[in-house]
């Protein structure tokens, strides 16, 4: 589990850099050594050729002696040329090079100051190696243009490896310096790269809980754009939920004010009334008022549960609408009987549909409840459930006062109440019906029955299969 | 006072209606703005209690129309909206007072009295005329310091006459002020009330203007000096 992207990247990038540069250094070491060898070989052969070039004329013993004298002076001359602080190394260097000139019999004619052994007289022409007393020498042998002299130059190997080693060592020092520098640079670069994330984080972190508008997406890095977009969707849903809660509280407060005012007024008039019969009537009104308040609260709760973002219906099953309608009517039928209403269910059995039975139950209850409320005594209510070709049709017809056509759209608005209705409704019933219908993709139509009197509400549930 | 109550809620309207009558007022109750406008075309009210959430004609629209018709009957607005902006809007549209539901009935009645007082440009809460002192809030009447009990309609009748000292009030106007629409009125009921008042006050304060109505005559200069010790 990666906790910090910055740490993860820093460690892994540094590791990668270390591995690659180390392999480079290691490769360099071998390649450098070869380069150094061939370079030094070239220098060695160059010296030999230069010498052979100088020994072109026929030289007698005297000449050789003269040259040998010159050669003997070399250590002294070098001492002068090279700076004093290099003394020790120079002493060492004196014995590193050997130059010898041999005649055709293998006798030593010329040699560098330090050595006069005949160690190299059997060496073949060209490059070769020779071990003398534990030290390995690189040797180059040529003959001069007349073929009577053999020129030998030799160099100690340890100098050569020392050179290659020193180059590699320098490389390592540079690398050791570079690692912390790269680490620092990587740290800064990653930091800058993660700046976009930090900006989003700050933007979200410094928000007030009620500030839920989307985070600006323009400056967000491509890599976290999907995350921010999802976050924005979440914000949107949260905002909707907040709005709904606020509206519920507002609606409740607003809608309860009038019934509460009525309650209070009725009770206060009752307190001042001396007449017992009158007082009793007022107290009955208080009870009606309380029922009304309770009804408002209950309907508001139902409506708030049928919220837009719960547009995915839960607990969807297949059930018999006819059976459900019969149960609902049985539950609230007594109110109809009290009003001497003729309520009848005409249902085809079975009428199977797919949906949430609880929600559909609320829908049926609200429709029937509305019909009972608004139909005057001795009226008639018919509830019809019919199987149609491509769905199920639920119809509730009453012969009450009905709703004028121009108000048909408005009755679905929340809290809309039609003038002159004396029943204690709160104007939420049909809003709930419409919400539930919409959740089931059902069509709601409102009209006047064929008799010309009353109200007919039709809900058509299109056929659906259970997934 | 004769009060027009404009309230669409059945239970609240009923409670207010009974409460107003209980307090000795004459109340008429309509349930929408159009009906209220209609009532104001034919009748005169001392005060209007107006609910803002009305069907057919919303309360504020009603108020605009009322003021546009140069009708300056005091209006007390009742509303479920309680934000300051709502109140400001209501008052600026022409309301004289504002109460948020749920309210205290006694406070509503007190505010009605205050509105009424302002209309008659009275600073005192009581109405004083010669030796009569009438206190509308306490429903109390004293003559020469002696308490006299009057039934609510006769009290209201006397109050109306005292509020309009020096003006002749027609029989129709007075009857309208004493009875709402749904009350049946006998033709001689006003004479009976006037007779009772005269009998109980033991003085002829009320003058009959034959064929027109009644009035209480303006006090002579003595009312100006009476309050100075």
Q: Strand count, sense and closure of the main sheet of chain B?
A: 5 strands, parallel
- Gross morphology of chain A is rod-shaped
In which order are the strands of the major sheet of chain A placed? 2-1-5-4-3
- According to DSSP, the number of beta strands of chain A is 12
Residue share in β-strands of chain A: 15-25%
Helical percentage of chain A? 40-55%
> Which architecture of the largest domain in chain A per CATH?
2-Layer Sandwich
Q: Can you tell me the CATH class of the largest domain in chain A?
A: Alpha Beta
One letter per element, helices H and strands E, the order of chain B comes to EHEHEHEHEHEEEEHEHHEEH
| Total of domains of chain B | 2
The Cα radius of gyration of chain A reads 54 Å
CATH superfamily of the largest domain in chain A: PAS domain
CATH architecture label name of the largest domain in chain B = 3-Layer(aba) Sandwich
- The CATH topology of the largest domain in chain A is what? Beta-Lactamase
Task: Please identify the structural class of chain A as seen in this structure.
Answer: alpha+beta
The end-to-end distance of chain B, rounded to whole angstroms, is 33 Å
